[in-house]
């Protein structure tokens, strides 16, 4: 699956849960070097998905707060004109 396709398919919670499982498996040990490297690479991909999802959520929150502040400022401006 391509990285962009995977990011669209994985929600934050799903990526986080899979990342937790990857970390658990790495910490438990008992895997070959190749398996460990594959797990590490998968963990990096999942971490990127989580980071991008969180950045997107932060941007949406910042935009909503900015819109709210702008609406409050406009209301205050309307009250000053009266």
Terminus-to-terminus distance: 60 Å
Shape: rod-shaped
Low-confidence stretches: none
- Secondary-structure content class: mainly alpha
Provide mean pLDDT, rounded: 91
Q: Output the number of helix runs.
A: 3
Q: Main β-sheet: number of strands, strand sense, barrel status? A: none
Count the strands?
A: 0
What level of helicity do the residues show?
over 70%
Beta-strand percent range: under 5%
Rg computed from alpha carbons, rounded to a whole number of angstroms: 21 Å
Output the helix-strand order.
Answer: HHH
Nutshell version of this structure?
By secondary structure, the protein is mostly helical. The protein has three helices and no strands.
Quickly list its features.
3 helices, mainly alpha, 82 residues, 89% helix, single chain, rod-shaped
Show the helix and strand layout:
Layout lengths: L2 H7 L2 H17 L4 H49 L1
Helix pairs in contact: 2-3
Commentary on this structure:
The chain is mainly alpha-helical. Helices cover 89% and strands 0% of the residues. The longest helix is centred in the last third of the chain and has 49 residues, at 33-81. The protein is rod-shaped. The relative contact order is 0.11. The model has no long low-confidence stretch (mean pLDDT 91).
């Amino acid at each position: 699956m391509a990285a962009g396709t995977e990011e669209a398919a994985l929600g934050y919670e799903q990526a986080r849960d899979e990342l937790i499982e990857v970390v658990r498996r790495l910490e438990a040990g008992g895997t070959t070097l190749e398996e460990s490297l594959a797990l590490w690479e998968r963990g990096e991909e999942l971490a990127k998905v989580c980071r991008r999802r969180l950045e997107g959520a932060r941007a949406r929150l910042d935009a909503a707060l900015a819109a709210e502040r702008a609406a409050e400022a406009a209301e205050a401006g309307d009250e000053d004109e009266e």
